[in-house]
Amino acid sequence: MAKTIIEKIIQKHTQDEVKPGQIVWMELDLRTARDFGGPNVVKNYEREYDDEPVADAARTFFTFDLCTTGCLLRYADNQQICRLFARKQGLKVYDVDWGIGTHVLIEEGLAKANTTCVGTDSHMNLLGAVGCFGQGMGDVDITFAFRTGRTWFEVPETVKIKLIGQPDPSASAKDITLFLLRKLGTKVLAEKAAEFYGPAVESLSLAGRITLCSMITEMAGIIGFIPQANEAARQEIERFSGEPWLPFQADSGAIYCQEIEINVAGLTPQVALPPSPANVYDLKEVAGRPINSGFIGSCTNGRFEDLEAAARILKGRRIKEGIILRIVPATRHVYDECLQKGIIEIFRQSGAIVMNPGCGGCAEGHSGLTGRGEVQISTGNRNFPGKQGKGEIILASPEVVAASCVAGYLISPEEL
Amino acid sequence: MKIIKGRVWILIDEQGRLIEDIDTDQIYHNAYLHITDISQMGQYALGNLKGYEDFPLKVGQGDIIIAGRNFGAGSSRQQAVDCFLALKIGAIIAPSFSPIYWRNAINSGLAVLRCHHLNDLVSNHRLESGDILEVNVHSGEAFNITKKIAFSIEPMSPVQLAIYLAGNLFAYGRQMVRQG
Ligand code: SF4
User: Fold this and answer.
1) Which of B43, B52, B127, B166 has the most CB atoms within 10 Å of its CB?
2) How far is it, in rounded angstroms, from Cα A338 to Cα A332?
3) What is the domain class of B7-131 according to CATH?
4) What are the residues facing A94 on neighbouring strands?
5) What is the pLDDT of residue A408?
6) A270-415: what fold?
7) Which of A137, A141, A147 sits opposite B177 (nearest CB)?
8) Ligand 1 center to residue A2 CA distance, Å?
């Protein structure tokens, strides 16, 4: 039977018949837990399995990224619980000096096309950017995956989305992503997989692919794939994985539950205002709103290209007096590249704070929170109340965040 | 052959319609999240759902809950499943469940079943609170013994059934590991 991409990946990992709605047992190539959820996995594991070994120590990892300064005792305790378990079981820990787990999995060549990976991170599905079926799960599921190397999964339906037209040069991957949220909301992709086609997405860098795929979570989807890639993105993926990138392609007769065309011609920068990521407007409509602080980083926009784009705006400029801009590279690899290319120096001279790699402002994040009444413009992926402290969060691209921090209010970079 | 038989509890609003989108805060309020002993959780089940505050006092072992679509929406809290396990609820039947609730319930061995024509059955009084219902989880055949009306639900998938029969995901996993 003709299959979509998700159906092909699942079929490669199961003996069961794969069709939407069917629950199958799926072999997992990688299973991970982070400093959030990880200690619960350890607790479950020791209660249920005692000293029994994990299914495959070489494919089971901890990735610490939520609190990479260990500045909160409860996280420091939790990280230590995971380290001790890892030592006992012979597991590798990508400790607080590595960066965001999902990105580390890509850079270390662990998450590859057509493989399966689970972890205690709801943005695990950004691995779709390299054609890997990543999925976030709760601690019971992950405990089970550690011990058995398998999980059960209900095969999702797939939505085919074709983007037509070329966005305006001022629009970035984040703007395309926010625009998709505006069009698709949280219902169209709910519980479904997506395949994206069209030059606007196929021309994205790996960083841009990650931006789009990370926010499938905010669209309530299972995972998104972009089966075609430009040469630069392909080369970067292959450099990390050390092998030719040959992601599954959908069969020509594959069955989609819905096929959608979205016109992105002339698209200009977008922003998501509180209280939800789908509350998206043209930046033009809301330009001029005052902000108090900025954040550049996260699993959505923490890659080198994101930081470089911000640096292009900040070069030779200074952040407005009274505004705090925090910048957090996604990984140590990204940090190194920024250092080598003089990007960190540009940030420093502009007055921004640059911190060690990790998730940054999310949850009780190590890079600092927003206080009540504070309005922050952020490259993150969620602006629900309480996601990054008690302040209000506006989601935007790195370029728009940088420009707005120079101006002190929402502004498009070319207006600066 | 596993047959679930129990007295029906239909969660309806004042207009007699199945309540949709019952979220995990209505099922198990966040004020009691600090409780870790499952046996203590039953008393708070549905404690925040209007009209059902006294549910834990009236419900009996093996009773079957009938609810509207998207049952278990909201947070991923496991307690929203555990409180029903504590009360020894026989099954929850709804047209659909939130995906996280669905996974959590299956992994904990709570019988969750989907039935697409529940709204019709309830609005036509073919299924009412207090009726005795029998469900074959393998075949999906359901029979309202009180009213002598047969209907169908989605049978459990083989995976869900295996976890359910083993007791929970961990018990099932032990069997699986033993069998290699
Ligand atoms: S950056 Fe934020 S949203 Fe992304 S994985 Fe880290 S905590 Fe989650």
Assistant:
1) B127
2) 10
3) alpha beta
4) A63
5) 98
6) Aconitase; domain 3 (3.30.499)
7) A147
8) 35
Task: Please report the pLDDT score of residue B100 as a whole number.
Answer: 82
Instruction: Work out the average pLDDT over A120-129.
Output: 94
Closest-CA residue to B26 (of B2, B44, B8): B44
Kindly determine whether residue A22 and residue B157, on different chains, have CB atoms separated by under 8 Å. yes
CA distance A21 to chain B (A): 10
Burial (CB count <10 Å: 0-12, 13-18, 19+), residue B103: buried
Please list the alpha-helical segments (H only) found in A242-316.
283-286, 298-301, 304-314
Please state the domain extents for chain A.
7-154, 158-263, 270-415
User: CB-based contacts of B58: which residues, under 8 Å, 6+ apart?
Assistant: none
For residue A15, with 0-12 CB atoms within 10 Å meaning exposed, 13-18 middle and 19 or more buried, which class applies? exposed
- Judging by DSSP bridges, how do beta strands B149-152 and B141-144 pair with one another? antiparallel
Exposed/middle/buried for residue A324 (C-beta within 10 Å: 0-12, 13-18, 19+): middle
CA A139 to centroid of chain Cα atoms: 20
Interfacial A residues in 297-326 facing B (CB < 8 Å): none
Fold of A158-263: Aconitase; Domain 2 (3.40.1060)
Q: Which two tokens stand for residue B127?
A: 């299924």
Q: Which pLDDT score is estimated for B33?
A: 73
Decide: helix, strand or coil at residue A384.
Answer: coil
Q: Which CATH topology does A7-154 take?
A: Aconitase; domain 3 (3.30.499)
Q: Tell me, what amino acid is at A85?
A: F
Query: How far is Cα A394 from Cα B71, in angstroms, rounded to an integer?
Result: 31
Residue A43 contacts by C-beta under 8 Å, 6 or more apart in sequence? A81
Q: B87 vs B79, which has greater pLDDT?
A: B87
ipTM above 0.90, yes or no: no
The one-letter amino acid at A359: C
The pTM of this model reads 0.91
Our CA-based measurement puts residue A25 at a distance from the nearest CA of chain B, in whole angstroms, of: 8
Give which of B93, B98, B122 is closest to B110, Cα–Cα: B93
Q: Which residues pair with A389 in a beta bridge?
A: A370
How far separated are the first and last CA of chain B, in Å rounded?
25
Of these ranges, A178-182, A361-365, B11-15, B67-71, the one predicted with the greatest mean pLDDT is: A178-182
- Only one residue has tokens 């982070």, namely A34
Local structure of A170: helix, strand or coil: coil
DSSP secondary structure string for all residues of B51-115:
T-TTHHHH--TT-EEE--SSBTBS---THHHHHHHHTT--EEEES-B-HHHHHHHHHTT--EEE-
Measured CA to CA, the distance from residue A18 to residue A11 in angstroms comes to 6
Smallest CA–CA distance, residue A147 to chain B, in Å, is: 8
ω before A275 within 30° of 0 (cis)? Answer: yes
pLDDT digits (tens, 9 = 90+) for A197-225: 999 999 999 999 999 999 999 998 999 99
Q: Across the interface, which of B108, B160, B170 has its CB nearest the CB of A23?
A: B160
Q: Comparing A158-263 with A270-415, is the CATH topology the same?
A: no
Do the chains contact at A191 and B103, CB–CB below 8 Å? no
